[in-house]
Amino acid sequence: MGRTTARHAGVRYRNVAEEIGKRKPFDHSEIEAFVNVMRTHEYLMAKTARFFKDHEITAPQYNALRILRGHGERMRTHQVADELVTREPDITRLIDRLADRGFVVRDRCESDRRVVWVELTAKGAAVLKKLDKPLEELHLAQLRHLGPRKLKQLNQLLFEARHPEY
User: Fold this and answer.
1) Into how many domains does the chain fold?
2) Would you list the DSSP string of 32-78?
3) Which of 21, 27, 53, 158 has its CA 20 to 30 A from that of 128?
4) What is the residue range of 66's domain?
5) Would you say residue 36 lies in a domain?
6) Helix, strand, or coil (residue 120)
Protein backbone atom coordinates (compact mmCIF):
# COMPACT_ATOMS: atom_id res chain seq x y z
CA MET A 1 0.00 0.00 0.00
CA GLY A 2 1.40 3.43 -0.96
CA ARG A 3 1.75 6.47 1.21
CA THR A 4 -1.35 8.50 1.81
CA THR A 5 -1.03 12.06 0.62
CA ALA A 6 -3.33 15.05 0.78
CA ARG A 7 -3.45 18.12 -1.41
CA HIS A 8 -3.93 21.65 -0.20
CA ALA A 9 -3.46 24.54 -2.61
CA GLY A 10 -1.42 22.31 -4.92
CA VAL A 11 0.89 21.04 -2.16
CA ARG A 12 0.92 17.35 -1.24
CA TYR A 13 1.14 16.40 2.43
CA ARG A 14 1.74 12.95 3.86
CA ASN A 15 0.43 13.66 7.35
CA VAL A 16 -1.01 16.31 9.64
CA ALA A 17 2.43 17.35 10.92
CA GLU A 18 3.47 18.39 7.42
CA GLU A 19 0.08 19.97 6.80
CA ILE A 20 0.45 22.34 9.77
CA GLY A 21 4.17 22.97 9.16
CA LYS A 22 5.38 21.03 12.19
CA ARG A 23 9.09 20.44 11.77
CA LYS A 24 9.42 17.47 14.13
CA PRO A 25 7.10 14.49 14.53
CA PHE A 26 4.50 14.63 17.29
CA ASP A 27 5.75 13.39 20.66
CA HIS A 28 2.58 11.31 21.13
CA SER A 29 0.19 9.66 18.72
CA GLU A 30 -2.68 10.82 20.94
CA ILE A 31 -1.75 14.46 20.32
CA GLU A 32 -1.38 13.85 16.59
CA ALA A 33 -4.80 12.20 16.52
CA PHE A 34 -6.35 15.12 18.40
CA VAL A 35 -4.85 17.64 15.97
CA ASN A 36 -6.00 15.48 13.06
CA VAL A 37 -9.57 15.38 14.39
CA MET A 38 -9.59 19.15 14.90
CA ARG A 39 -8.23 19.86 11.40
CA THR A 40 -10.78 17.49 9.91
CA HIS A 41 -13.58 19.12 11.89
CA GLU A 42 -12.55 22.56 10.60
CA TYR A 43 -12.32 21.27 7.03
CA LEU A 44 -15.74 19.64 7.08
CA MET A 45 -17.47 22.43 9.01
CA ALA A 46 -16.23 25.20 6.71
CA LYS A 47 -18.38 23.94 3.84
CA THR A 48 -21.23 22.99 6.15
CA ALA A 49 -21.28 26.42 7.81
CA ARG A 50 -21.27 28.08 4.40
CA PHE A 51 -24.20 25.88 3.36
CA PHE A 52 -26.23 26.88 6.41
CA LYS A 53 -25.30 30.56 6.07
CA ASP A 54 -26.49 30.51 2.45
CA HIS A 55 -29.83 29.16 3.73
CA GLU A 56 -30.01 31.64 6.64
CA ILE A 57 -30.07 29.01 9.38
CA THR A 58 -27.44 27.69 11.78
CA ALA A 59 -26.34 24.10 12.18
CA PRO A 60 -27.76 23.89 15.74
CA GLN A 61 -31.10 25.31 14.55
CA TYR A 62 -31.26 22.76 11.75
CA ASN A 63 -30.34 20.02 14.20
CA ALA A 64 -33.10 21.09 16.63
CA LEU A 65 -35.66 21.05 13.81
CA ARG A 66 -34.53 17.55 12.78
CA ILE A 67 -34.86 16.32 16.35
CA LEU A 68 -38.41 17.64 16.56
CA ARG A 69 -39.31 16.08 13.22
CA GLY A 70 -37.77 12.77 14.28
CA HIS A 71 -39.86 12.62 17.43
CA GLY A 72 -43.00 13.56 15.56
CA GLU A 73 -44.50 15.23 18.60
CA ARG A 74 -43.86 18.14 20.90
CA MET A 75 -40.89 17.88 23.22
CA ARG A 76 -39.60 19.65 26.28
CA THR A 77 -36.90 22.19 25.52
CA HIS A 78 -34.35 20.35 27.66
CA GLN A 79 -35.03 17.12 25.72
CA VAL A 80 -34.13 18.88 22.48
CA ALA A 81 -30.95 20.22 24.11
CA ASP A 82 -30.00 16.73 25.29
CA GLU A 83 -30.23 15.32 21.76
CA LEU A 84 -28.33 18.03 19.87
CA VAL A 85 -25.20 16.81 18.09
CA THR A 86 -23.18 19.67 19.58
CA ARG A 87 -23.80 21.33 22.92
CA GLU A 88 -25.77 24.55 22.79
CA PRO A 89 -25.19 26.73 25.85
CA ASP A 90 -28.38 28.74 25.39
CA ILE A 91 -31.10 26.42 24.13
CA THR A 92 -33.76 28.94 25.13
CA ARG A 93 -32.37 31.54 22.74
CA LEU A 94 -32.03 28.94 19.97
CA ILE A 95 -35.69 27.94 20.39
CA ASP A 96 -36.70 31.63 20.58
CA ARG A 97 -35.05 32.28 17.21
CA LEU A 98 -36.79 29.30 15.65
CA ALA A 99 -40.13 30.47 17.08
CA ASP A 100 -39.55 34.04 15.84
CA ARG A 101 -39.14 32.63 12.32
CA GLY A 102 -42.25 30.48 12.66
CA PHE A 103 -40.35 27.18 12.50
CA VAL A 104 -41.56 26.01 15.93
CA VAL A 105 -44.24 26.90 18.44
CA ARG A 106 -43.68 27.03 22.17
CA ASP A 107 -46.19 26.26 24.86
CA ARG A 108 -45.55 26.73 28.57
CA CYS A 109 -46.88 23.90 30.75
CA GLU A 110 -49.78 25.09 32.91
CA SER A 111 -49.00 22.76 35.81
CA ASP A 112 -45.25 23.48 35.86
CA ARG A 113 -44.32 26.91 34.50
CA ARG A 114 -40.65 25.85 34.26
CA VAL A 115 -41.51 23.40 31.47
CA VAL A 116 -41.68 24.70 27.90
CA TRP A 117 -42.98 22.43 25.16
CA VAL A 118 -41.67 22.89 21.62
CA GLU A 119 -43.32 21.62 18.44
CA LEU A 120 -42.30 21.74 14.78
CA THR A 121 -44.56 23.81 12.53
CA ALA A 122 -45.42 23.18 8.88
CA LYS A 123 -43.04 26.03 7.99
CA GLY A 124 -40.23 24.35 9.96
CA ALA A 125 -40.95 21.03 8.26
CA ALA A 126 -40.82 22.76 4.87
CA VAL A 127 -37.38 24.21 5.67
CA LEU A 128 -36.13 20.74 6.56
CA LYS A 129 -37.58 19.27 3.38
CA LYS A 130 -35.85 21.96 1.34
CA LEU A 131 -32.44 21.43 3.01
CA ASP A 132 -32.32 17.68 3.63
CA LYS A 133 -31.24 16.51 0.16
CA PRO A 134 -28.66 19.24 -0.57
CA LEU A 135 -27.10 18.75 2.88
CA GLU A 136 -27.00 14.99 2.38
CA GLU A 137 -25.29 15.50 -0.97
CA LEU A 138 -22.73 17.82 0.65
CA HIS A 139 -21.86 15.25 3.34
CA LEU A 140 -21.63 12.44 0.80
CA ALA A 141 -19.33 14.53 -1.40
CA GLN A 142 -17.13 15.36 1.60
CA LEU A 143 -16.50 11.75 2.65
CA ARG A 144 -17.45 9.47 -0.26
CA HIS A 145 -13.80 9.11 -1.33
CA LEU A 146 -13.11 7.02 1.79
CA GLY A 147 -15.34 4.18 0.64
CA PRO A 148 -17.61 1.95 2.73
CA ARG A 149 -14.90 -0.05 4.54
CA LYS A 150 -12.92 2.98 5.70
CA LEU A 151 -16.09 4.88 6.64
CA LYS A 152 -17.23 1.98 8.80
CA GLN A 153 -13.81 1.86 10.47
CA LEU A 154 -13.73 5.66 10.91
CA ASN A 155 -17.18 5.67 12.49
CA GLN A 156 -16.19 2.92 14.91
CA LEU A 157 -12.92 4.61 15.86
CA LEU A 158 -14.59 7.99 16.44
CA PHE A 159 -17.25 6.36 18.60
CA GLU A 160 -14.61 4.51 20.62
CA ALA A 161 -12.62 7.75 21.08
CA ARG A 162 -15.69 9.24 22.80
CA HIS A 163 -16.38 6.05 24.78
CA PRO A 164 -13.08 4.72 26.21
CA GLU A 165 -14.88 1.91 28.02
CA TYR A 166 -15.30 0.01 24.71
Assistant:
1) 1
2) HHHHHHHHHHHHHHHHHHHHHHHTT--HHHHHHHHHHHHHTS-EEHH
3) 158
4) 55-166
5) no
6) strand
